[in-house]
Amino acid sequence: MESALVAIVPGHRPVESGFPDGLRTPVAVVGAALALLIAWCMIELPAAGARGGAQVVAQSQELLVNDLARATADSISDVAGDLSTAGALYTVHPDKTPAATLTAFTRACPQARGLALVRRSTGTLLAGTGEPVPMESLPNKDVDRITVNLVQDQSGATVVLTAAPLAGTDWLVLVTTGLKIAAATLSGEPAEALLLTTNDGQVVKSRGDFDPSYQQLVNTASANATAVGSVTGEAGKGPVVNGVRTTPIAVYAPILTGDPARPLGLNLVLVGSAPGQGAPQTPVETAWATVALAAAAATTLLLLVFGLVRPLRRLRAAALGGHHKRRHRLREARIVAGALVGDAVVDKRGRISARTLVFAAVAPLLACSVAVGVVAWETVPTVPELVVQGERGLADVTAGALRDQLSASLTDLRSFATHATGDVGSLKPALGNLIAQNSRYRSVYVTDANGAVEVTAGRTPLRTVERPPAGSGLHQQNTAGRIPVLYASTPLPDHSHVLIGELDVTKLSSILRRSAGNGKLVDAGLRTLASADGYRAFDPLTDQSLRQSVTDALGGVGRPGTDEIDGQWYVIAATTVHGGQSVDPLRWTVVLQQPLTTLPLPDNVVRRHVLAAALAAGTAALLLLGWYHLCFVRPLRRLATAADRLARGDLKTVIYPERLNEIGTITQCLDATRRQRADTTAPVPLLV
């Protein structure tokens, strides 16, 4: 290429568009975005790694407190269900006198502290039993549905007042019951306390030692308890543990009853203390991703600038000016430069193509983002012991909720049976009411002594016809099949019929779904009866860590821990469903497995931030690749093909610019060269 480049017409400069067509635009735009990303990583990753302590512990308890609040609400709502069932039975065999009526309802509500029968129209007391019922706390007694309210009895204690109108009469049944906090394993040092509070922070029920100095924190939590949440007190103002001051915490959740759920004006608050600061991560643990992404981004941008942008801009300047001579390393640039001076490039080897250079330039950033993402994805977070123990508490609450459902089903049937006199066929409306008021059943029916169904309500019974077990109890009929057959049974007063209520496995699974992760209910043979996730009935537990956890729980030595299952780490906790003569023989166990990556831990926050940064960097790399390849590399390759034809003598094919950018300018210069050569080589017409 010794001859001078042929320039475009002097004084004429091709028009080039601005954004986004310039060669430097992708580098500038994506480079600025990457700079912001790196700056965000430098600021946010260390800050996220330094978070923790009290806030982490508080957030880890939110699911437990919410589950406890639901269990407390269930215990309150059970009274309404008992009253509804008793009312339906009353319509079958009505008692004429108020005293006899109240006696029937007393048998239906064994947890009642006091009962009263009043006239709705006048509020006159007709009969009463147990503790005095604060009737004056229900100013409007003309109600047409079951209502639940918080009131104070004569001693000033807060109780639940449930009112149920009696169909076909002017009577209203009032029942007071005490407040109960669901059982749960309380951890922490010092031990935590569970409180039932009103919205103004008044403590009406407590379990555990409550430090009065936490009252202001309790007031704040109670006022904010429109949904589950947590608050932390002033750092270092908690009790001294192991020579270190702790930070007070309060976790809260509202008590919601009814359908649809409505606030009762009662909240469950867990108070305790936690370390004021978490163990901060070292700069190496939080900065490695920033350094790696910054180095990869700089490499990519420099390769693009010095390997593609500057060479093509020099070629453009040469095409416009016609006086630069330079050896080009890009294959396409060398071909175009040769065509501008009339040289055909024969040997095209030993030069890198623009497409290869763009792919090679983007590769470091893309590979680094993938590597950083994989490392972050596979990183196992560090789990504080308090968080692990919180999973045990969650398992206890779930097992307690299941136990309450099982026990309540047997209580329902026993209460129903005390009123089931006379012809069993007349019980069908009351059975239908029992199904409607209690979602725990899939079907309720009466069988004869041999197990044949005589009257039923709900879905078709699954239980195989066989002689029912003697007495009252809870039973598991099968250990194989499509659906587990779990039922409660109790004999009717005539001793020739048995009342059976089949439990809805879907309802049991919904209780398991309250917990995070995957919860399972398994029998003594480690077969799955219900699960929070999709499952096949009676699938055995296959993972050894889950089997060992259940075995330990059945042996009374269960303890939570972390273990790897199918390549992912979980917190595992198991608790037996126990607490009564009817429940204990089942030997059922709740086992929970929650992925460590879903826990509210600083490590997980850093992990999510690093994954987001890796994804953003990978997206930037792909954006650079697509932008340069579509807007510059492909037009440049087509220009090189046209330049090669021109250098080999094709002066007829017009070379059109595809885009008004640097490549378009070079294209116009090349076409100007073609026109000049076509003019000089045209034959001179002969004069005749």
Provide the descriptors you would attach to this structure in a database record.
688 residues, Beta-Lactamase, 6-stranded antiparallel sheet, 5-stranded antiparallel sheet, 21 strands, 42% helix, disordered N terminus, ATP-binding, EC 2.7.13.3, ATP binding
Number of strands: 21
DSSP helix fraction = 40-55%
Overall shape: it is: elongated
Which structural category do the helix and sheet elements fall into?
A: alpha+beta
Distance between the termini: 42 Å
Stretches where pLDDT falls below 50 for ≥5 residues?
Answer: 1-7, 280-284
Radius of gyration: 39 Å
Arithmetic mean of pLDDT = 84
Strand content: 15-25%
| Main sheet makeup | 6 strands, antiparallel
The oligomerization state is: single chain
Number of helices: 14
Task: Give a verbal description of the structure.
By secondary structure, the protein is α+β, with helices and mostly antiparallel strands. Among the domains are: 24-44 and 284-378 and 612-681, no CATH class; 66-275, no CATH class; 518-602, Beta-Lactamase (2-Layer Sandwich), CATH 3.30.450. It is 42% helix and 20% strand. The protein contains 14 helices and 21 strands. Strands 6, 7, 8, 9, 10 and 11 form a six-stranded antiparallel β-sheet that branches. It has a five-stranded antiparallel β-sheet with strand order 2-1-5-4-3, covered by helices on one side. A five-stranded antiparallel β-sheet has the order 13-12-16-15-14. α3 runs antiparallel to α4 (98-108) and α13 (602-647) runs parallel beside α14. The radius of gyration is 39 Å and the shape is elongated. The two termini are 42 Å apart. The model is unreliable at 1-7 and 280-284 (pLDDT under 50).
